[in-house]
Amino acid sequence: MKKIISAALAVMFTVVFAAGCGKDARILYNGKLSEYVELGDYKNIQVDTSSDSFKEYYDDEVSADVSSYDLYVRRTEGTVAGGDTVNIDYVGKKDGEAFDGGTASGYYLTIGSNSFIDGFEEGLIGVEIGSTVDLDLTFPEDYSSAPELAGQPVVFTVTVNYVRTEEERKPEDYYSELGYASFDEYDSELSERAAKVYLTDKVIENSEIKGFPEEDTETIYSAYKNTVDKNVSSQYGIDFETYLSYNGQTEEQFKADAVTNQIEPLMKEQMVLYSVLDEEKLGLTDEEVQAELERQAESFNSTSVTAETLNEYYGEYFFEYLVVKEKAVDFLYENAEIS
To answer: Please, which pLDDT band fits residue 2 given cuts at 50, 70 and 90?
Structure first.
């Protein structure tokens, strides 16, 4: 259980933080940012798109798309081996009836990750890709996520759809699957995205961070803790305190680790971009933040995901920052020297 939760939260944090309200009442960095940030050069930064350093940024954007849209090379022949990441459909039944939480389609499972009960992953080793197998298993006696299944015999019917390799498909081969009319169109967008990340990194490098505002640190930590709490509750049926106990941590230790290793590095980027926003008087309104929140909700294409639920999950500041980031980074791009 501990391994599963730690891995899930690492992914979740990347997804949540890889991302004002009223112009006089924004959530983050309302104090004098100059006390904490000495903003360096941010205009007329040179970007050589033919350089090796830029190619690294470009390749990172390609890898991000491959990961986001599952554009890895798929193996559809042969058998499953230990260490393989398999795409499976499965149905778990007890006494011939499917039980809650025991059914999934298109699920990715790495053989050897110990993500499932004993015997599930081992039972797939040697199975022909494309075939279906029944696994006669027994839930652990201390299975707390679904006590009614603890110690009970069950049958999982599993279909192995394919094995996902680590090899990334080439952009020239998949651009049309992402809705682009030509590779040149996709390549142009990749280059722009890479340039914006490059420019952001460069401005952070040019700037000096002199400290972190305590109030803003608390705002972001509270949102992060809330997200962790909701995540472990929905996925594993445990509360925040139980999660801490599984990891042998007090909340004080958890907070110190989160602030030092994740929140403060994020705040460096935030403070620099908020400084650009302020310096250039780019403005920020409630309407812009609400529009971004609604756009993000619509992107899920699910009636269960609303602007309200997203706001509760990620925290109000998050969507404010998405707007600030877009405005500031667009300004950097428009005022850069790109060759």
So the answer is: very low
DSSP label of 178: G
Tell which residue, 260, 251, 326, 257, has the closest CA to residue 288. Answer: 326
Predicted pLDDT at 25 = 63
Tell me the HSE value of 53 on the side-chain side, using a 13 A CA sphere: 9
Residue 30 lies in a domain: yes
Give the side-chain half-sphere CA count within 13 A for 233.
10
pLDDT of residue 234: 79
Per the domain annotation, does 49 fall within a domain?
Answer: no
pTM tops 0.90, yes or no: no
Host domain of residue 154: 72-168
- Asked if residue 125 is part of any domain, the answer here is yes
DSSP string, 143-186: --SSGGGTT-EEEEEEEEEEEEEEEEPPHHHHGGGGT-SSHHHH
User: Are residues 202 and 269 in contact, defined by beta-carbon separation less than 8 angstroms?
Assistant: no
Is 202 inside any structural domain?
no
| One domain for residues 20 and 128 | no
Dihedral (CA of 220, 222, 228, 230) sign:
negative
Q: Which residues contact 297 (CB under 8 A, 6 or more apart)?
A: 305, 306, 307, 309, 310
Identity of the amino acid at 132: T
Does 334 lie in the same domain as 211?
yes
**Rounded Cα gap, residues 164 and 192, in angstroms:** 29
The total number of structural domains that make up the chain: 2
- Which of 153, 168, 183 corresponds to the end of one domain? 168
Residue 290 phi, psi dihedral angles, 5° rounding: -65, -40
Q: Which two tokens stand for residue 143?
A: 């299975």
Q: Name the least confident of 70-79, 95-104, 125-134, 258-267.
A: 95-104
